[in-house]
Amino acid sequence: MRHHHEGCERAHHHGHEHGCEHRHGRGGGGGRRQRFFGHGELRLVILEILTREASHGYELIKAIENLTLGNYTPSPGVIYPTLDFLQDQEFITIKEEDGGRKQITITELGQRWLEENREHLEHIHERVKARCVGFELRKNPQMKRALDNFKAVLDLRVNQGGISDAQLKQIIGVIDRAALEISQLD
User: Fold this and answer.
1) What is the domain range of residue 68?
2) How many independent structural domains does the chain possess?
3) Residue 68 in domain
4) Rounded distance between C-alpha atoms, residue 178 and residue 146, angstroms
């Protein structure tokens, strides 16, 4: 049996099939290339899903789609190599059922590795939530235009000019007032 830290080390060197985890986004935007999961992060997300119940490849895809509110659907070409890696590390077992479906279960080793990376997993969830909020906002064309305009103006004023501390304070005040006004809308 491999020692459980080996998964962490090998996770950084197993490049070709995991670096593409973020490239197959679809759902709503037709092949968006938003980076929902960084290198190796999909493994943690899959293991966490498996702690709730044993699953199958298709169900994992649906669970990840639900997690990202339909903004990211990993393709089988992303899911299955990731499952192969997790099986190589003995973090999961894959058992063939009647009818050819494969049942995927997390192992004790997998649960230990997940616990060691619990903090990283929480960061992943926070980031996914933030991305989903961004997607929801941008579904409205007027909102998208307003947000793009806001970013362009900020970029121009803050990044491209010799801005004084007093001006920066003014800009922060405007943003804070706008946030307060939005929060108080009926």
Assistant:
1) 37-139
2) 2
3) yes
4) 13
